[in-house]
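[User] Once you have settled down, look closely at the record that follows, and write a paragraph about the fold.
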Amino acid sequence: MAKKEKTIEQHVAEAVLQKQMTVTIGGRDFEVARPTIATLYDLSAIVSELADVEIGETSDNMQNIINATLQLAKYAPVQTEALAKLILGAKENGYVETKKATKKSSLLGLIGIRKTICETTKIDRFEELKTWLMYNGSPAEMQSAIVQILGTNAETPFFFQTTCFLKGTRMTAPTKTKTTTPGQ
């Protein structure tokens, strides 16, 4: 049975209600909230580190794609960082503190005095997820997750349209200025 396409009203309702979606990467399911403006802003800063790609046109275009892919492999950490940002969102970055209690006995264990020591460890969830994605996510799964998070979100095109609209309403657009030295 074919999967029924969602109506625009269903997409809008999910966006308004902040309904989460599930994306699967490396056999692990992630509950992902719709991106907020803060998340899109952070994402923009991350992807600004990616290089522009130009694939030359020759008779052997597949070889050009392979060469471009090998040259772009150095940007894999940026791609995993972008996906981690989309999964966690802007607010969910930070540290999680874990406490571990250990019991130690004194005097080589001969005397029954036990003392409990609590150790607190800070775990950077963003770095942990980024590293996990790097070693467990396939390129196809990661691309699918990014498209699913951004592409099925009714707010992403709205954000883009609003940005274009606001940019078009600028009254004072920057102009080129020509500087001349005196006497010319």
Q: What stands out?
A: Residues 155-168 form the longest helix (14 residues).
